[in-house]
UniProtKB/TrEMBL annotation:
UniProt-annotated location(s): Membrane
UniProt topology in membrane: Multi-pass membrane protein
Highest classification ranks of the organism: Eukaryota, Metazoa, Chordata, Craniata, Vertebrata
Keyword terms: Membrane, Transmembrane, Transmembrane helix
Organism: Parambassis ranga (Indian glassy fish)
The keyword Membrane appears for this protein: yes
Superkingdom: Eukaryota
Residue segments, region Disordered: 43-83, 651-672
Protein name per Swiss-Prot or TrEMBL: Transmembrane channel-like protein
Gene Ontology CC entries for this record: plasma membrane
Compositionally skewed regions (Polar residues) per UniProt: 43-60
Length: 672
């Protein structure tokens, strides 16, 4: 056999990686000469010599340690593999047939109860798989998302998935509002002093746009909810109202943090070493079960977009490596409407102009396209949240001394929500669609060339959704039906944006990786939630400091605050419950709570580091497997060349050449 150059590879090893779970029949292969020459064995042999003893292949020799401890070490993994469906096993067809025969032999050798347990487990898995497959077909807009992903890439799809998630979140908010606020108010009624809800007098249709008149007296705003017949010490309208709002914010926090950590975990585990196996994508990426031409087109587009993304990242890496250091009365209602919507118009105008400037700036900073998207997202979200925060501070300082100022605050949030939806509608049908028609009818005109082709700008559209959801969270305390309004506008926005993408936009030539941006989407949503919680906390603090302005409208009247209402409820509880609540709200409980949080965080950090080490070890093992395959191919090519060079030699089987080198035929003289 020819001598070959030794390849030096380094692989991360641990106790788990050096322990083997090989059966006795594989020990014969492991004692062959060709196995000792594999690069992976040569690289790991100095480290494994102290952990693993060689297999004994003699008839009367002792069994290896791996074989003795095989049932204990890998029983869980074998059981888990034996219960998997054959089609899910990552082996070839012959391996699946072998696994099927082995399972049949195991079934014949086990008892009745074990056989029944395995059959029931397999049946449960099949039923669960069928149910999951059936439920996946009921997911809203599933086929629409596949179509968008095929034509515009996974980045645009990530925006629509984020939009669908916001719809789910607002539907959950509507359920909580109905359970805590609307339901008790409708069942028990309002206070006797409340005026009935009637449409008439000075009410007009314009009130539904401005949030005044009839809408101001309706269940949309804070002032509608007063104490009714439900007036117990620990079960009354103020407590239910406040509990519902706090529940909405708390559940939103849990859901957004969960989505953020899930995406961050995926991105962190991949790190910057993520790469795509181009050969796998080209030769194994096609789904041969496709029969529909449209599905085939979508699958081809998936592969094309992945390759474009990979080439874009490779191109940026190469560039980075080469761097060196009069009729006013007639239109009075229109003027009034514009004046009422002047703050939302100003905020929207600023949010439309400055992000375009940010986008142009990021294009000159020589970032990758994914980094450009993320940098623009961060800059624009701080712009939007800052403008919203300034506007909220202005409302607090100018309207806090008014009677029933909560309704006024909720009215402003209502107008922000409505105007944001109107801006989306007008942008789609009054700008993007006419722009597309001009380009189709007159593609060579000066106007068409000046406007250019429309691309779906993911950062700006995502930030619009984050901004709308932040407004909904901020205003839900003052306008309880704002989540319902938000749900309706989000569903309408989904179809409007679908029309914009599929009808008015062209595919982006540069792709970006959506995994890191999805984490950023939810992180910005988390910032909006914190802003809403800070606004509510500031309002409750002012209620305590300035009690003289309280009691105008809403659940908390007659100089009541949330602290007074909860204090009355706590004082009516038994002594043991009062002591428990007093301890949980005291400083003495803060220390054990802090210690518990530190322990939990430490355990998660340790688990994350262990997972990272395991991932690095698996990556190195994949590298070694590739080296072994190249080595075996080289040896096979060498043997084929020898057979052609020595035609007079007897051709022995390949495995005999490696298994018993001492039985080789006498060397032949080369004819060359």
């Amino acid at each position: 056999m020819e001598k070959h150059k030794a390849v030096n590879f380094v692989r991360l090893l641990s106790d788990e990686s050096v322990q083997s779970s090989l059966s006795s029949d594989s020990c014969e292969y492991y004692q062959t000469e060709i196995f000792d020459q594999l690069p992976s064995i040569q690289a790991s042999r100095p480290n494994q010599s102290s952990h693993v003893e060689p297999c004994e292949t003699s008839q009367g020799g002792p069994e290896p340690k791996e074989q003795l401890s095989h049932g204990h070490l890998s029983r869980g993994s074998k059981d888990k593999t034996s219960l998997q469906p054959l089609r899910n096993l990552p082996v070839c067809m012959q391996g699946k047939r072998t696994a099927r025969d082995r399972r049949n032999m195991q079934i014949s050798n086990i008892g009745f109860w074990e056989s029944w347990r395995r059959s029931q487990s397999i049946s449960r898995r099949r039923v669960s798989a069928h149910i999951s497959e059936s439920l996946s077909g009921l997911v809203p807009w599933r086929h629409t998302l596949h179509t968008i992903e095929g034509r515009f890439g996974v980045g645009v799809k990530a925006y629509f998935v984020f939009l669908r998630y916001l719809v789910y979140l607002n539907l959950l908010h509507c359920t909580l509002i109905c359970g805590f606020i609307l339901g008790p108010t409708a069942f028990y009624g309002r206070s006797k002093n409340s005026e009935p809800l009637r449409y008439g007098g000075n009410d007009s249709v314009l009130d539904f746009v401005l949030g005044k008149g009839y809408l101001d007296r309706s269940p949309v705003f804070y002032g509608f909810y007063t104490r009714g017949s439900l007036n117990l010490q620990c079960l009354n309208t103020p407590l239910l109202y406040f509990t519902g709002i706090i529940t909405i914010l708390f559940i939103s926090l849990i859901m957004v943090v969960r989505r953020t950590t899930r995406g961050y975990k995926h991105t962190w585990m991949l790190g910057k070493r993520h790469s795509m196996n181009v050969s796998y994508k080209i030769f194994c990426g096609w789904d041969f079960t496709i029969q529909d031409p449209d599905a085939a087109t979508l699958n081809r587009n998936f592969i094309r977009n992945d390759l474009k993304l990979f080439l874009e990242e490779q191109s940026f890496s190469l560039r980075a490596a080469q761097r060196t250091i009069g009729q006013k009365d007639d239109y009075y209602w229109l003027v009034k409407l514009v004046l009422q919507y002047l703050p939302p118009i100003t905020i929207t105008t600023v949010d439309l102009v400055l992000p375009v400037i940010f986008r142009k700036i990021s294009s000159f900073e020589d970032y990758s396209f994914t980094t450009q998207v993320n940098v623009t997202l961060v800059r624009t979200i701080f712009l939007k949240l800052s403008s919203l925060g300034i506007y909220l501070f202005f409302i607090f300082t100018t309207t806090y001394q008014q009677r029933c100022w909560e309704n006024h605050f909720g009215r402003e949030m209502y107008k922000l929500c409505i105007f944001n939806f109107l801006a989306t509608f007008c942008n789609a049908f009054l700008w993007n669609y006419p722009r597309k028609l001009v380009q189709e009818k007159h593609p060579s005109s000066c106007v068409a060339r000046l406007m250019g082709k429309k691309h779906f700008l993911i950062p700006f559209n995502v930030l619009d959704r984050v901004y709308s959801q932040t407004v909904s969270w901020v205003g839900v305390y003052y306008c309880p039906l704002l989540p319902l309004i938000g749900t309706v506008t989000l569903v309408a926005t989904f179809y409007i944006q679908k029309f914009t993408v599929l009808r008015c936009c062209v595919a982006e030539q540069r792709m970006f990786r959506a995994s890191s941006s999805s984490v950023l989407f939810h992180f910005m949503l988390l910032l909006g939630l914190f802003m809403a919680a800070a606004t509510l906390g500031f309002d409750l603090y002012n209620h305590v400091v300035t009690e003289d302005v309280m009691g105008a409208c809403g659940p908390f009247q007659n100089m009541e605050t949330i602290y007074n209402v909860t204090g009355v409820c706590v004082n009516s509880l038994p002594i043991s419950a009062r002591k428990t609540i007093g301890y949980l709200t005291s400083e003495a409980f803060a220390l054990p709570l802090l210690v518990f949080e530190i322990i939990i965080l430490t355990s998660y950090v340790s688990r994350g580091r262990a997972n990272q080490r395991a991932i690095e070890r698996l990556k190195d093992m994949l590298v070694m497997c590739s080296s072994d395959k190249r080595f075996l191919v080289k040896q096979h090519a060498t043997m084929l060349r020898r057979r052609h060079i020595r035609p007079g030699c007897s051709t022995a089987p390949v495995e005999d050449t490696h298994l018993s080198p001492q039985k080789h035929a006498p060397p032949c003289t080369s004819t060359g």
